[in-house]
Amino acid sequence: MTHEVYLEHLRLARAAVNIPILASLNGATKGGWVRYAIGMEQAGADAIELNTYALATDRRQTAGDMEHQLLELVSAVTSAVKVPVSVKLSQSFTSVPNLVARLEHAGARGVVLFNRFYQPDFDIETLEVRPTLHFSTPSELLPRLHWAAVLYGQVKLDLAISGGVHSAEDVVKGVMAGAGVTMMASALHIHGIEHIGRVLADLDYWLEKREYASLWETRGCLSRRSVPDKSPFDRGNYIKTLSSYSLRQTVAAF
User: Running DSSP on this structure, what letter comes out for residue 111?
Assistant: First the structure.
């Protein structure tokens, strides 16, 4: 889809609905990102997501270089538009809390956890490297929950979870971790657009059964800063998890 066609879709969507429209932007150069962001704002976007996806393939490129390029990009885009800008991150950064704090300082109003790492497959018969695309599964939610729970309370910008959200239970988990937004795409491809209605109905039932006035009341209750035992988010949980598995195996043998 060309940029012009995308902007036309954006204008039509803005005219057709009353809900906020979030435009997702994926560019190759800083100048291109800024130009596209301005066009999206003019087309009626209420907010813009910078869908960043950069992989280091040159050994001369350091982790610091990658972060610096991202921060420069975010600063350039946020300076060029008035609407809020969120940044969709990959999982490959070493210190996510530090980077997110710097993104906030650069002008970002939110971060999305995380961009999916699309990996090619190898065809050993034709000797070709081929792109592959698989829908997400609920198991992909776990690293998103982890980092949302770690970030909650450490930064002021909004946290969103993307990847692995398929059910009302997944939405509740994301909000309890600290996310203010959960995003769903693969589940809609699998089950159809009407799946949104089922998820919302399941959410209403879950909240009513537990006598919550709103889902917002649960936000952050399972974040790292809220739980008494923080070891599940830290290195210490590695030993606990392995020990727990070994113990279950021993009990099962008897």
Answer: E
Give the pair of three-digit tokens for residue 146: 């982890």
What pLDDT, on a 0 to 100 scale, did the predictor assign at position 1?
Answer: 66
Which tens digit of pLDDT belongs to each residue from 154-205? 999 999 999 999 999 999 999 999 999 999 999 999 999 999 999 999 999 9
Residue 234: CATH number of its domain: 3.20.20.70
Helix, strand, coil shares, percent, the chain, to 5: 50, 15, 35
pTM score of the predicted model: 0.88
Q: Tell me which residue range forms the domain holding 104.
A: 3-253
DSSP β-ladder status, 121-123 and 128-130: antiparallel
Q: Exposed e or buried b for every residue in 96-122, given b needs 16+ CB within 10 A?
A: beebbbbbbebbbbbbbbbbbeeeeee
Dist CA 167 CA 180 (whole Å): 16
Q: Helix (H) and strand (E) counts for the chain?
A: 9, 8
Half-sphere exposure of 111 (CA within 13 A, CB side): 29
If one counts the domains in the chain, the total is 1
Give dist(CA 220, CA 192) in Å, integer.
Answer: 30
Q: pLDDT tens for residues 105-151?
A: 999 999 999 988 778 899 999 999 998 888 999 999 999 999 999 99
